[in-house]
Structure formats: C-alpha cells, structure tokens
Amino acid sequence: MGEHGLGGRLADIAAAERAALVREIDAAGALVADPRWREAFATVPRHLFVPYYYVSGAGGYERRWCESSDPRGRERWLRGAYEDAPLATRLRDGELLSSSSQPSLMALMLAELRVEDGARVLEIGAGTGYNAALLSYRLGDANVTTVDLDPEITESARRHLADAGYRPSVVTGDGARGVPERAPFDRIIATCTLASIPPAWIAQCVPGGLILAPLATGLIVLTVRDAGHAEGRFLHTPAFFVPLRGADRPEPEPVALAGIPHRARESDLFRFLLALTRGALDPQEAYALWEREGMPERERYGVTVGPGHAWAWLDAPQGPYAWPLPGPEAAAERA
After folding, report:
1. Are the C-beta atoms of 130 and 158 separated by less than 8 Å?
2. Catalytically active residues, by annotation
3. How far apart are CA 216 and CA 184, in angstroms?
4. Which of 249, 227, 312, 318 is nearest to 277 (CA)?
5. In which element (H, E) is residue 269 found?
6. For the purposes of burial, counting CB atoms within 10 Å of the CB of 231, is it exposed (0-12), middle (13-18) or buried (19 or more)?
7. Beta sheet of 185-190, edge-to-edge order
8. Tens of pLDDT along the chain (335 residues)?
9. From CA 28, how far away is CA 130, in angstroms rounded?
10. Considering only Cβ atoms within 10 Å of each terminal Cβ, which end of the chain, N or C, has fewer?
C-alpha cells in the first residue's frame, strides 16, 4: 500500500489534494508566522482521521465512506477529506455532535498559539484526533494532551492517531476541569464553544501562557497572569463550533429581534455582540451601542477573568462598556 494506507491512484490523489489544501491555507496567510505548521499540514494525512463523514444535501445527510463499494464513492470521500471545509463526523437524531474543523481555521488557531519548541499544550475536545496530530508533529507526542467527555470519541481519536503514527496523551474526562495530572500547560486550545472560561484552565496554565477558545461567535486569546487571572482580546475571525456538552447545560433562549433593522439582524458583527452580551443587554440596547460605536469589529472586544467573576468589554477592561459573563458554574459544563 502507498500513501498512508491507500493504493495506486488513490494514493496519488491524496498526495495531490493535500498539497492543494496546503496551498489554499497558505494563500490565506495563516501559516506565515510559523512555517513548521505548513510542514505539519503537508505531512499529516487528514483522510486517516475522517474514514467517514456526512455531507448535507437536499435529502438530508449523505455518508461518504473510505470503504464504499463504488470506486467513484471512495474517490469522492478522499477528495472531500482534503477540502478546506468542516466535516460532520458524528450525528445523533440529526444533531451534530462532533466534526473535523475547517483546516484554514485550524491553521489560524494553531498559529495564534505562538508555540515554541517544547511547549506543553492541552487541547479541549479531541474530535477526530487530527488537531492533536498536527500539534504532535510540531511539538512531539509527549508535549500534547487532548481530552474529551465521550469515550467513543477518545477511542476513535486514539485509533486514528495511532494509524497516522502519533501517540499524544488522549484522556477521557471532563474538559472543563482540564487535566490536572498533566499540568502545567504552556498553551490551552479549545475546539468547542464556551459560555465562559473554566477557572481550572487558568489554574493549570503557566503565568504568561495562552488560552485560545471559541466564545460567543469569535475566538478569544487570553494571556494568563497567575492561577486566578487572565485577560485578552478577540481575533478578527468569526468562529462557529459545537458547544461544550453536558446534561445540565441549558439551551439558550431565543433572542427576539423585533424592531431591529434588517441590516443589523443580518450583520455577523451585530450577532457577535448579541451572543457576547446575552443576558446583560437586550437587543435594543445592543443595537444602540453597535450603531453608536460604529459597528465595532471583533478585535475591539476583550475578556477579563478573575477569581469568581469574568466580564467582556469593548475597547478597555475598565471602560464604559463592560458586561458580565456567566460564572464558574456555567463554565463547568462538560466538554
């Protein structure tokens, strides 16, 4: 067998598609800061981490599978595995439970970690194992830990990683509690949307370390000051991930947008503000602020976390615009 378990023509397709994916990610500028990430995406075979996935269509979801009896079906699966797109990997009653993230967004997040050789990284949300493999390529297996609540997810991630030749620490457990037995970490990266930042992550991160996580519909990068404090700003890019999971996680109440102008309702930046200030501002208040401040980009917003409290803010932590985030009890939902 040739290219990572594939034979003949499929091996050639995999190599060509992976090279094309790297060129596409590179063109977006995500790999400029650290060329070693380019090597990682060029080397780690994504298709080993998505032996099947689901593609949404008019009639529901189509399953693409590496062992399809139709050669054309296997080729569609392989080419799709290297598209710069998120891939749905686990569904239950039509609900998305797990996915492989869009590679260009993964590259952006990995580059924003600003890792150095020897850095110890904790990933919250094991997914398919692909992100952990990229981290292992860059930093070495011994420096990478990935955790997920679902034992089926961690077992399949562990198997995919082994098939690709990587053996980081894969832990089944509550991601919101971190992995204390493997701490301290220099970096923590989450691949699931949060309501707030779990205190355990700050406590398990070294002073000066970074936490990068999806929050609202953005990506927050926090610098840890000490075991109880962290602060940082959002990146420019939108980001949509599967939420932290737990049986006690309440479903968010729908937001009534009656009276909000159409251009605001359709604006990604306004929807980000609504998500960030949910429970603190009603939509009319959020709209008034959004208009008054010139439709602020995500980079103008930030988050400060202290013992027992956390707040989001516009422009400055002690400025006139600040809103409480859910407390530690909300952040302790399981991942």
Report:
1. no
2. 98
3. 27
4. 312
5. helix 268-276
6. middle
7. 169-172, 144-148, 121-124, 185-190, 205-215, 218-226, 229-234, 301-306, 309-314, 322-324
8. 456 668 789 999 999 999 999 999 999 888 877 889 999 999 999 999 999 999 887 777 889 999 999 999 999 999 999 999 999 998 877 677 788 999 999 999 999 999 999 999 999 999 999 999 999 999 999 999 999 999 999 999 999 999 999 999 999 999 999 999 999 999 999 999 888 899 999 999 999 999 999 999 999 999 999 999 999 999 999 999 888 664 344 445 556 687 899 999 999 999 999 999 998 999 999 999 999 999 999 999 999 999 989 999 999 999 999 999 986 544 444 44
9. 20
10. N
Instruction: DSSP letter for 173, please.
Output: S
Q: How far apart are CA 212 and CA 215, in angstroms?
A: 9
**Cα(first)–Cα(last) distance of the chain, in Å?**
37
Cα gap 131→157, rounded to integer Å: 10
